[in-house]
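Memo to structure team: turn this sequence into C-alpha cells by end of day. - J.P.
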Amino acid sequence: MSEERRVRVGRRSITITRPDKVLFPDDGITKADLVDHYVRVADVMLPHVRDRPVSMKRYPEGIEGQVFYQKRVPDWFPDWIPHVEVRTSKGPHVYAVIADAATLAFLANQACIEPHTWLSRADRPDHPDLVVFDLDPSADDLPMLRRGARAMRGLLEEAGLVPFVKTSGSKGYHVVAPLDRSADHETVRMFAEGVAEVAVDRHPDVFTTQFRKAKRGDLVFLDVMRNGYGATVIPPYAVRAFPGAPVAAPIEWDELGRVEPRTFTMTTLPRRLARRGDPWAGVRRRARALGDPDRRLARLHD
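Reply from structure team:
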C-alpha cells in the first residue's frame, strides 16, 4: 500500500497520506478517490461553501470505523487554510474556513468525508445567507416526502422568498431559500419556526415538529434547528458516509418526482454535472431581505 501521494490542486501541492486506504468497503472507494471527488466538483461546490466555517466529520478508518466531529482547528493545520474565531457557549473557538479547491482536498485527506458548513460566512458569522428546512422522513414513504417538499416550496413562495431543493444524500430533502444577510441568526431561526408551525397546521397529515422520534409516527419531521447560530448543514456536492457514497445534490423542482435522496453518488455525479451543470448556479442572485419576519409570516396566516 502506497504511504503517500502528491497532487497539484491550483497553486498548492497536497500530500495524500495512505491514499489507498479504503473508506467505503462495499464500493472499494479509497481516500485518493475521495480527494479526487472534491477536486473534481470544486468549481460547482465552492460558490456554495467558500468563506464558510466548517465542522469536519472524519472517518479515519472508513465509514464502518469510528467517527468524530472536529470543529476547532488543530495546531498542525497549514497556515494557508484560513480560520475565524467565533463565539460559542464555551468561549471563543477557532474554525477552519473553506477557501478553495486545495482546502477541500486537504480536508478529504483528513478522511473528512462529510464537511458540514455554517449557514453564514466568516466575515459575518451571525448573519446567515440561507434559511434551511430539513425534511427527515419517519417512514419509508417517498410520495409523502415529495409532497412535503412541494408544500414547503409553496409556503416559502407565499412568504416572498425563492425556494430551492437538494437531495440530502441521506434520507430526505433540503428546501432552502437564499437571504441577503441583513437578518441575524435569531431572526432567521424565529422565522423558520413560524413557517414550520404553519406547515404543520396546513398539512397535519404530512409534517411534524416533534423532536422525539417516538412521537413522530409516520410523519415527516420538519427540522429547522439548522438555522440556529453555529448550526451546520451538509452542503451541495458533499459526500455522505453511507454505502454507495451518495452525494448531496441540488436538483430542479421538476426533477423532484424522479430523484430520490440518494440517487446521485460519487460515481454518477460527474455524468450529471456534464449534462446539466449546477441547478443552483444562480442561487445568490435570488437572495431576499427577510425584513420583518412577522409580516412575511402574516402572509401565510392570511
